[in-house]
Automatic annotation (TrEMBL):
Provenance organism: Leptothoe spongobia TAU-MAC 1115
UniProt entry keywords in alphabetical sequence: Coiled coil, Membrane, Transmembrane, Transmembrane helix
Protein name: DUF4231 domain-containing protein
Coiled coil stretches, renumbered: 187-214
Annotated Gene3D superfamilies: 1.10.530.10
Length: 515
């Protein structure tokens, strides 16, 4: 402290003595002492103070940063020593963190450099004025150079003040930007957390539904006394197979088929022995479409289940095929439905999309609705809104993003993607974004099309329309639409409520147009 005061006193006396020797007026000498010299001394003092703060904090940070790892790695045979060293390491680490935070907050290093630079600039200006050098070399006496010197000194002082204000504003902007970024990051973290919680809730809901379905199926099996696998079930022998192709009375065939199956399901193994010996359950399984993930989003968990509902679905499809063929070949009894739910012009206005696309693709969609017996105005509303949000228009499309995006589906066992390249090969296609090997396999079998072997067939308008209609029928989407539960319609397709605002907008537009 004494040394610092001695230097300051020496500098003040030396510069003050030089000012007294200048050939300028007494008023100008007072200015030089009270304005220039006083400013130089103040800057020197601030620079020294900020330098000391900066060095002390940096020394704590540097030395503590070296000591903490050494103390953490220190091991002794004495447990007391280890505990003591541990507490010391904790204290030092806290001191390091505090010193770094204080230095960052107050900016002692930046202030020191600024004060030192301005002080040296002011001293250089004073020495040049006293020696009539530099910008003052054109003057013969100090009195003539005084006005220029005073102007330059004031300019330096003003520049220093403006620099301080600018740095303060910049720091405030940085603090505001950091605060905004922290808020944004917090919001993103909260959104991710909410999304994860929603996905967990959806998975739990699906798991509970699947367990309830399995328990119901097991109870049905136990009640029926059946001990074989689903693949062991055959049509009763009293119903000839060729009757599905040749009988003109489709209603009678359907009734006989239903009665025969009920008879087979309700009979005990002892009663059916005369027709077929019961075998142990097969390891083969039939995928139930209800256990597959929702389409139109990141599909959720699925697994294979053996159940009697699958048999009912298969036989219903067979009967539908028989009815369709009978209507085609049966003359007057096979008259096509003439009631048109909507027109391409209406669809184009509702969905705000290309009229040509509506003319091209609407007939196939309506035919698919008839095939799966969901030809209903409310179902059409849900179906149109679904197509609009999943495709962005009114035609089958590939999932947006390209291969770099589709690779996220790689090794997704819940989608059945178990081979390299499955993620890209079985990316989303069509009206409802059929995704994953399991879905392509399942819906390909339902439609009688090799979608698993040739996934691009899902872009065929007729195939894509049938996938959409089949999904609406079997996953209960059509039933939800008929009851007016549009949120359930979106959730059954999407697995959540992503895009609900857009979906609900087109539902309202369709309701206004179609009634």
């Amino acid at each position: 402290m004494a040394k610092k005061n001695a230097y300051s006193q020496y500098l003040k006396e030396t510069l003050g003595g030089l000012i007294d020797k200048l050939e300028v007026t007494a008023l100008h000498k007072e200015f030089l002492k009270n304005r220039w010299l006083d400013q130089v001394m103040w800057l020197e003092g601030r620079a020294t103070k900020e330098r000391n703060h900066h060095f002390r904090l940096r020394m704590v940070t540097i030395i503590g940063g070296v000591l903490v790892p050494a103390m953490v790695g220190f091991k002794s045979d004495s447990e007391n020593i280890n505990v003591t060293v541990g507490w010391i390491a904790l204290g030092v680490s806290q001191a390091v963190a505090i010193s770094a935070a204080v230095e960052e907050f107050f900016g002692h290093g930046d202030k020191y450099r600024n004060y030192r630079s301005t002080a040296e600039t002011m001293k250089i200006e004073g020495w040049q004025f006293m020696q009539l050098a530099g910008p003052y070399r054109k003057f013969k006496v100090h009195e003539d150079a005084y006005k220029t010197f005073a102007q330059r000194v004031e300019a330096y002082i003003q520049k220093d003040v403006e620099g301080f204000v600018a740095r303060l504003d910049e720091k405030q902007e940085d603090d505001k930007r950091d605060a905004d970024e922290a808020t944004h990051n917090s919001e993103k973290a909260l959104m991710r957390l909410n999304q994860e919680l929603e996905e967990r809730a959806q998975r739990l809901e699906l798991d509970r539904a699947r367990l309830a379905e399995q328990a119901s199926q097991q109870q049905s099996i136990e009640d029926s006394g059946y001990s074989g696998s689903l693949l062991d079930i055959q049509m009763p022998s009293d119903i000839p197979a060729e009757s599905f192709e040749e009988s003109p009375d489709d209603a009678a065939i359907a009734q006989e088929t239903s009665t025969g199956i009920q008879s087979l399901m309700s009979s005990s193994p002892r009663e059916t022995t005369g027709q077929r010996t019961s075998r142990p359950s097969s390891n083969k399984t039939i995928k139930s479409s209800s256990s597959l993930p929702p389409l139109g989003q990141h599909a959720l968990e699925w697994e294979e289940n053996v159940n009697f509902q699958a048999l009912k679905t298969i036989l219903t499809e067979q009967n539908s095929a028989v009815e369709s063929e009978s209507q085609t070949n049966g003359g007057a009894t096979g008259t096509a439905i003439t009631n048109q739910l909507t027109t391409p012009d209406q669809v184009s206005q509702i969905l705000e999309c290309s009229l040509e696309d509506c003319k091209t693709y609407l007939p196939g969609i309506l035919n698919a609705m008839k095939k799966y017996d969901i030809y209903d105005g409310s179902v059409l509303i849900g179906l149109l809104a679904t197509i609009r949000i999943e495709t962005g228009g009114f035609k089958p499309v590939h999932e947006w993003g390209g291969e770099s995006y589709w690779k996220r589906y790689e090794e997704r066992a819940d989608l059945g993607n178990v081979r390299p390249g499955d993620g890209v090969k079985y990316h989303g296609r069509g009206y409802i974004q059929l995704t994953g090997r399991a879905n392509y396999s399942t819906y390909g079998k339902k439609l009688g099309v090799d979608l698993e072997g040739n996934p691009d067939l899902a872009m065929d308008p007729e195939v894509s329309a049938q996938v959409l209609a089949c999904y609406f029928k079997e996953r209960g989407v059509a039933t939800a639409a008929q009851s007016g539960d549009w949120r359930k319609v979106r959730k059954l397709v999407n697995g959540g409520y992503h895009g609900w605002d857009v979906f609900s907008k087109y539902v309202e537009r369709a309701q206004a147009q179609l009634g």
